Amino acid sequence: xxxxxxxxxxxxxxxxxxxxxxxxxxxxxxxxxxxxxxxxxxxxxxxxxxxxxxxxxxxxxxxxxxxxxxxxxxxxxxxxxxxxxxxxxxxxxxxxxxxxxxxxxxxxxxxxxxxxxxxx
Length: 120
Prior knowledge:
Elements: E1 2-6, E2 12-18, E3 21-27, E4 35-36, E5 49-56, E6 62-74, E7 77-84, E8 91-93, E9 101-106, E10 111-116
Parallel strand pairs: 3-8, 4-7
Antiparallel strand pairs: 1-2, 1-10, 2-3, 4-8, 5-6, 6-7, 9-10
């Protein structure tokens, strides 16, 4: 299980290690991709380019972005995830990465838990 928190602004997040540093990663249930990493991290990660991917955004908008494969530390393992590198400093974890997890966000207590679900 992964434990996280909810910020004072109501944003659910977890902490993850990347390149020897702890980063705050937002759990973004409105993002159907796997992972967005800050452009500034691109040079510190060896990544193969896999092509362009179309993402569905809020209000019916779509976005097409260059997509890469990255080794990403998640839930005690290193996963191969599809990632984009938009401008900015945010890390977003989308529903594509947590599709095998049960997400519980307790806004009043400001806690979050992600638990892997094993289907029969």
